[in-house]
């Protein structure tokens, strides 16, 4: 990104039959948003006009065909779809899925060509978007394939001081135990730790690791994954300098408020992390894809077909996704610039690990 222009955010329209355009329009109805970024919607001016009229929203936008026409201070929309695309509010359709896919493809292309600096994606329907080119469980896996440069991704749900990551994301529950391997946990803990430092500007972050089984397996009575996989992985990563603790049974961990003592929490599977996160911060939660060169966020909610076109969607999660993307982009840039010409270290860091036994002992009580 050139320092002479504002951060350009590529925003995908998501599923055209959901609330994507509504939360986008409501977010940028606030003029102050244009002071911090230049938004570029990847979708269709015609589809945008349909939603604007249906929702009776007074929002102006700038229809553009290429990057040269993008203007600061305006809500820009790049046409990615055929003008004959049909909208069926509140319904999952293959046509809607194709429109979402075409917008996603175009934003990836423009990111690769440095037209935009980061991505914020509106919700998609993971089933209707499937086609011969898109055969992924969701945005996270697609972006890892297209923009990962060989790096592995990690789904992080965040809000203010809460950061939940998931070891396995879009995976059937019956497949989770076999997927929880030492290699996977070590990989995710490394990505999580690195992201907390570089993306969230946290020095020496503390990470809590949740158990897979109830009561952390009760010493093998309720499952052996904790003894055989999770605890050895935590101990190995601790020896390598990552401040990780656990495993903690999620019920006691959340119910006691112990989660407030950690900078990040690694859940074993999707709902174990997302359920408490959305309970505590549904309206301002953000989905961040960590581990990749590209910064990508999205709102924590889905397409919300049940309220599509009714004008009652809450845009705060989408607005927070914009804020988070900008913050992470700047934190990452500052981190890299500060270490571009490092001085030779003249001392050894001493990590404070004194509360490890206390935290784990409390969890057993």
Walk me through this protein's architecture.
The chain is 38% helix and 16% strand. The protein is an alpha/beta fold. Helix 7 crosses helix 8. The termini are far apart. It has a twelve-stranded mixed beta sheet, with helices on both faces. The longest helix is centred in the C-terminal third of the chain and has 23 residues, at 316-338. It has two domains: 1-150 and 292-314, 3-Layer(aba) Sandwich (Isopropylmalate Dehydrogenase), CATH 3.40.718.10; 152-288 and 318-365, Isopropylmalate Dehydrogenase.
Short synopsis of the structure:
The protein is of the alpha/beta class. It contains twelve helices and twelve strands. It folds into two domains: 173 residues, Isopropylmalate Dehydrogenase; 185 residues, Isopropylmalate Dehydrogenase.
Outline the secondary-structure elements.
Layout: E1 8-12, H1 20-27, H2 33-36, E2 38-43, H3 45-55, E3 62-64, E4 76-79, H4 94-112, E5 118-121, H5 139-147, E6 154-159, E7 162-166, H6 176-179, H7 182-198, E8 206-210, H8 225-239, E9 243-248, H9 250-255, E10 264-267, H10 270-281, E11 286-290, E12 296-299, H11 316-338, H12 356-364
Parallel strand pairs: 1-2, 1-5, 2-4, 3-4, 5-12, 7-10, 8-9, 8-10
Antiparallel strand pairs: 6-7, 6-11, 11-12
Helix pairs in contact: 7-8
Q: Given this structure, which CATH class of the largest domain is correct?
A: Alpha Beta
- Total strands: the figure is 12
Uncertain runs with pLDDT below 50, 5 residues or more? none
Q: Indicate the structural class.
A: alpha/beta
Alpha-carbon Rg, integer: 21 Å
Calculate the mean pLDDT score and round it: 91
Q: Give me the side-by-side strand order of the main sheet.
A: 3-4-2-1-5-12-11-6-7-10-8-9
Task: Please give the CATH architecture of the largest domain.
Answer: 3-Layer(aba) Sandwich
Instruction: Count structural domains.
Output: 2
As a percent range, the share of helical residues equals 25-40%
CATH topology of the largest domain: Isopropylmalate Dehydrogenase
Q: Tell me the β content.
A: 15-25%
Largest sheet: 12 strands, mixed
Question: Quick one: overall form?
Answer: globular
CATH superfamily caption of the largest domain: Isopropylmalate Dehydrogenase
Number of helices: 12
**End-to-end CA span:** 52 Å
The arrangement of helices and strands along the chain is EHHEHEEHEHEEHHEHEHEHEEHH
